[in-house]
Design brief:
- By secondary structure, the protein is mostly helical.
- It has 2 domains: 1-34 and 46-78, no CATH class; 79-189, Flavocytochrome C3, Chain A (Flavocytochrome C3, Chain A, domain 2, Orthogonal Bundle), CATH 1.10.1130.10.
- It has 5 helices and 4 strands; from the N terminus they run H-E-E-E-E-H-H-H-H.
- It has helices spanning 3-19, 117-120, 125-128, 177-181, 183-192; strands at 47-48, 62-63, 68-69, 74-75.
- Strand 2 (62-63) and strand 3 form a beta hairpin.
Amino acid sequence: MSTARRLLLASVACVFAVLAGCNKAEPPPAEPPKQQPQPQAQAQQPTTAPTVVASREMAPGMDVMRGAPITETTKPPPITNPDNSDIKRVRNYSMQPPVIPHKVEGYQIDKNANRCMFCHARTRTQESQAPMISVTHFQDRSGNHLAELSPRRYFCMQCHVPQADLQPLVANRFVDVDAMLNPQAAASAAASTPERK
């Protein structure tokens, strides 16, 4: 067997192990499982993706995110509406870019126009009441200050993203640094924060 073929098989085995959520110390299988051909008369119907994530301890060949075999086509969940509350969200860490608290569907952001700057440009914030973009967005990569938006900061949604109220697909144990330093204050702040809908 050639070296390239062995590397390819090892790569495929690793991908299958990762997708299957394999956390065991056992070595991955040498070859991916072979799929039995199905008769043409029996068309495989897509199943609906689960709303709750299955346990990480799933059978080999199962996709942890969808809760279905890797080889099976599943119906994607419906697209939900993004948050449109226009309420600023707390940042989770000090240099986190602020998230977008409104819909951005249909926003033109290309070389000809940047719809975000209609409200967030320095000259437009008084009439729009939107926060002005950070002064860091007026610096080039050498730290020189520019008179207008830096080309490297032009495509806003590289860093700033809209939000939707969804259940996470993967468990998240992230703890804010303030919560680590002062757990009592963080608990009381969380209790007094209104729930977003």
